[in-house]
Amino acid sequence: xxxxxxxxxxxxxxxxxxxxxxxxxxxxxxxxxxxxxxxxxxxxxxxxxxxxxxxxxxxxxxxxxxxxxxxxxxxxxxxxxxxxxxxxxxxxxxxxxxxxxxxxxxxxxxxxxxxxxxxxxxxxxxxxxxxxxxxxxxxxxxxxxxxxxxxxxxxxxxxxxxxxxxxxxxx
Length: 171
Hints:
Elements lengths: L1 E5 L17 H14 L2 E5 L3 H7 L1 H14 L7 E5 L9 E5 L2 H4 L1 H24 L5 H4 L5 H10 L12 H4 L5
Parallel strand pairs: 3-4
Antiparallel strand pairs: 1-2
Helix pairs in contact: 1-5, 2-3
């Protein structure tokens, strides 16, 4: 999941921070503020099949590109967390640790994370065997145990193979 946000300089959003440093309640509150106060915002996803076909990094960059091209008005300058987005004809600046250093990148990380978490809750409602409501698709011990028991779902990347699940532990 990738987000793009153009903040309105006249509508400050207090508390913007790296989505990983915020509680779920804080992210939800900020999501509502961002989506109501931003000049523009968008979220785009990379499907598991796309990630399997091109790798996680390239699929993430493609999702960033889709999110960026979906916003209007289009920006004059794009600030990106750590990487430049290929095949985009905008001025860009890659900002190392951008979600901690830039409010627009932090806002984009929040809208992407909340959107993803909401999708995981919906997937859990459709198929509770995997416990997406608890781990949101991250490779926790509970999630790996559910995959070991039930196999992959259509949401799982076939190229993701945690050693603790698929490889024998050498003695």
